[in-house]
Amino acid sequence: MENIVEQRVCLKFCVSNDISCGESLKMLRNTYGESCISKTRAYEWYKAFKEGREVVVDLPRSGRPSTATTKENIDKI
Q: Which terminus of the chain has a lower count of CB atoms within 10 Å, N or C?
């Protein structure tokens, strides 16, 4: 996860320096190799930063929690 956030920071830097998304992705691939985010994700994040997004981490989402293991559930068992 840390690696992904780092790559988003790099993309944000590229956007602020008017480096194209294609060139940004090329630099990410040269730096991160197989750990590089996908082309689709790179373009999505590039677009988001271009439109003014400031935050590089995922925003909290509503919906079903990823796990049901809570202190309350453990105490019930």
A: C
Q: Residue 33 corresponds to which tokens in the numbers above?
A: 């190799």
In whole angstroms, give the CA distance from residue 48 to residue 67. 29
Q: pLDDT of 4-62, one tens digit each?
A: 999 999 999 999 999 999 999 999 999 999 999 999 999 999 999 999 999 998 888 78
* Assigned architecture for domain 2-50: Orthogonal Bundle (1.10)
The burial class, CB within 10 Å (0-12 / 13-18 / 19+), for 69 is exposed
Higher pLDDT, 35 or 64: 35
Q: Are 28 and 36 in contact (CB under 8 A)?
A: yes
Determine the Cα–Cα distance for residues 77 and 46; give it in Å rounded to an integer.
47
